[in-house]
UniProtKB/TrEMBL annotation, chain A:
Its main location: membrane. Belongs to the binding-protein-dependent transport system permease family. HisMQ subfamily. It comes from the Bacteria. Keywords: Amino-acid transport, Cell membrane, Membrane, Transmembrane, Transmembrane helix, Transport. It comes from Nonomuraea fuscirosea. It is found in: Cell membrane. It is a multi-pass membrane protein. SUPFAM superfamilies: MetI-like. This is Glutamate transport system permease protein.
Automatic annotation (TrEMBL), chain B:
InterPro entries: AA_ABC_transptr_permease_3TM, ArtM/GltK/GlnP/TcyL/YhdX-like, MetI-like, MetI-like_sf. It comes from Nonomuraea fuscirosea. Residues 66-254 form the ABC transmembrane type-1 domain. This is Glutamate transport system permease protein. CDD domains: TM_PBP2. Keywords: Cell membrane, Membrane, Transmembrane, Transmembrane helix, Transport. GO terms for cellular component: ATP-binding cassette (ABC) transporter complex.
Length: 214, 277
């Protein structure tokens, strides 16, 4: 236990980086995911195909392969950013595929009649989306999005494998110095569990707020 | 075809769709052209840099890596499924001293990154005299973390079987265990098959952690190859392509199995843990 307090600054710095990675890449993934979802539900065949290709590609590639490709491959064609930014972009691009699929299943869960009724009373596309479709779709996706958030937090640990000093990497470094793996790794595990349980608590509250009893 | 979002397109909408088709296609082509230009500008399109990947020894080496990936994935999938089934039955047990530890295992492992488990096996266990073979250093953490996911899938499958099935089994004189084994599990197994396949795709993706363990699976083979021939982006792109082909085929299989289910089966989204009692 004392070993954790001795190295608190390093571990704290690692935790900050993990939280930054999680928050920034989830925000990026949400924006990109909405775009990809819009492509996948559009009435234009070519756009649907592009959306499908995106989702298929990034759901079927391991995140670590993408990280390695971005950290060691892309500099070869002159694309290089600071490590933290690179990791955030890669994780956002990867998780966007999952968010797009969650959102799409939400949109698909709204029955066809709802949209037809909205159009029948003369709402425009934007209005029917805002007042009828999205309020119903978003309710069903709170829980899946919460699970994706937790998965994102867990996946940020992979950035440690390509040299970003996040919580996992910090724990590894402290262990190299102190050689007391049990308290150090358990401490890191507890920190991840805290992040996940905060996310679980928030989504649970949100869902109870938004749930519709039919 | 009308959806919740759009009606059957009329003449105006059809015109707009045509415009969007052209614009979308142009945007996609422009994006590809940009990527190709970036490759060409940095001399990564030279034939000499891609030629090696048209030779058999290179592919034999990478396919060896793929074989090791399969081996690790199959072994940890088998172990994780066995452990997952035990955990699922444990969580559904009537005895709280069985239920509590199984639930605790699933809830704890769910929120620990697989890489952290790999570090524990790599750096913590040897200190306590448990130095595993390289193969097990990869498969043990993957088994531990995926067992929780399989357990939740099995549990959702078992819960989804109507109670009447168990009751009918008990009524004809089976014990609880027999009713589970002979009546409920065979039906549940069929129902969760698509989810099991897609979770196994996730496990196959996780074997890329061999990169950290230095176990010679596909990604680590790529790393060694890239260090040897210096063709970084080419090697990693080829490795990514192999992963993509293998995993996309498996995902396709999962979708086919799901489509063949009588009632659409259980999609992973409907099985989120909070939807269960």
């Amino acid at each position: 236990m004392p070993v954790l307090f001795e190295h608190l600054p390093e571990l704290w710095q690692g935790l900050i980086v993990t939280v930054q990675l999680t928050a920034a890449s989830f925000a990026g993934a949400a924006v990109l995911g909405v775009l990809v979802c819009a492509l996948r539900v559009s009435p234009v065949g070519v756009l649907r195909a592009i959306g499908t290709a995106y989702v298929e590609t990034f759901q079927n590639l391991p995140l670590l392969v993408l990280l390695v490709l971005a950290f060691f491959g892309l500099p070869e064609i002159g694309l290089q950013a600071p490590p933290l930014a690179t990791a955030i972009i890669v994780i956002a691009v990867y998780e966007a595929a999952y968010i797009a699929e969650a959102l799409r299943s939400g949109v698909n869960s709204v029955s066809k009649g709802q949209g037809e009724a909205a159009r029948a009373i003369g709402l425009t596309f934007g209005q029917s989306l805002r007042h009828v479709i999205l309020p119903q779709a978003l309710r069903t996706v709170v829980q899946p999005l919460g699970n994706i958030f937790i998965a994102t937090a867990m996946n940020t640990a992979l950035a440690a494998a390509v040299g970003v000093v996040d919580l996992t990497a910090a724990a590894h470094r402290v262990n190299l110095v102190e050689a007391q793996p049990i308290p150090i790794f358990v401490g890191a595990g507890v920190a991840y569990a805290l992040i996940a349980s905060v996310a679980g608590f928030v989504t649970g509250r949100l869902e109870r707020r938004l749930v519709i009893l039919r | 075809m009308s959806t919740a979002l759009f009606d059957e397109p009329g003449p105006k909408a059809r015109r707009r769709i045509k415009v969007a088709t052209v614009a979308g296609a142009l945007a996609a082509v422009a994006l590809v052209a940009l990527a190709v230009r970036q490759f060409a500008a940095n001399g990564q399109l030279d034939a000499t840099r891609w030629q090696p990947y048209a030779t058999w020894p290179m592919w034999r080496y990478l396919l060896d890596g793929l074989w090791s990936t399969f081996l690790a994935a199959v072994v940890s999938a088998a172990l994780a499924m066995a452990l997952g089934l035990v955990l699922a039955l444990g969580r559904l047990s009537h005895r709280s001293w069985v239920r509590a530890p199984a639930a605790a295992y699933v809830e704890v492992v769910r929120v620990i990154p697989a890489l952290l488990l790999v570090y524990v096996v790599l750096f913590a266990l040897p200190r306590y005299g448990l130095d595993l073979l390289l193969f097990w250093k990869l498969t043990v953490p993957l088994t531990v973390s995926n067992a929780a996911a399989y357990a939740e899938i099995f549990r959702a499958g078992i819960v989804s079987i109507e109670r009447g099935q168990t009751e009918a089994g008990l009524a004809v004189g089976l014990t609880r265990f027999q009713a589970m084994r002979l009546v409920v599990l065979p039906q549940a197994a069929r129902r969760v098959l698509p989810s099991i396949v897609s979770q196994s795709v996730g496990l196959l993706k996780d074997t890329s952690l061999g990169f950290v363990v230095s176990y010679g699976e596909l990604l680590y083979s790529g790393k060694v190859l890239a260090a040897y021939n210096g063709l970084l982006i080419q090697t990693y792109l080829v490795v990514a392509l192999i992963y993509l082909v293998v995993n996309a085929s498996l995902s396709k299989l999962a979708r086919t199995l799901e489509a063949r289910q009588p009632s659409g089966g259980l999609s992973p989204w409907r099985m989120s843990r909070r939807s269960l009692p």
